[in-house]
Fold this sequence. Notes:
Blueprint (H helix, E strand, L loop, with lengths): L1 H7 L8 H14 L6 H8 L2 H12 L10 H14 L8 H10 L2 H15 L3 H8 L2 H15 L1 H13 L6 H11 L4 H12 L3 H8 L2 H11 L4
Amino acid sequence: MAQVLRGTVTDFPGFDERADAETLRKAMKGLEYGSSLEDDVVGDTSGYYQRMLVVLLQANRDPDAGIDEAQVEQDAQALFQAGELKWGTDEEKFITIFGTRSVSHLRKVFDKYMTISGFQIEETIDRETSGNLEQLLLAVVKSIRSIPAYLAETLYYAMKGAGTDDHTLIRVMVSRSEIDLLNIRKEFRKNFATSLYSMIKGDTSGDYKKALLLLCGGED
Length: 220
């Protein structure tokens, strides 16, 4: 899995979601799993959670281009109407906007949403959704806002408390080591009052610790 991630994740400034998703789909076929990634997702999930995963996997996000302020306003209003102003929640509206709009557009939408609603979009997601769908939508928002900050948080909670989520720790450290790990380290220090290096050092041991510290690259 680490090899797949290393081959398919690209740097955020030049991120090509369509190309990466297609590479991942081809990689899974090449590994002879006997089914496509989308088939596996559909087989193992359900409901709006499944729908959001499939939309993300299809990678039909609009390309980053000039910002259409009218469309920003329209999407922010649509999200407000679909959540806070609606009895129940129009999950499909959240899925469509979060899964197809460009990164730069969504950042503007989140700012506009705060202006018109008085809430951060994360607050609305927390109130209007639950379970796996809530966690997935929050992950999308966090990664849209800042991939390094999101991955710093992911690493922090992989090591915080009793035990270590070794799968997550290895996956992020290996897949981002040659991409944006320095930025992740900076966000880690800024947001958690300790360094990634120090937390790895205190939470792991032996050759495993040595390897992770080499990947980390140094103290901040």
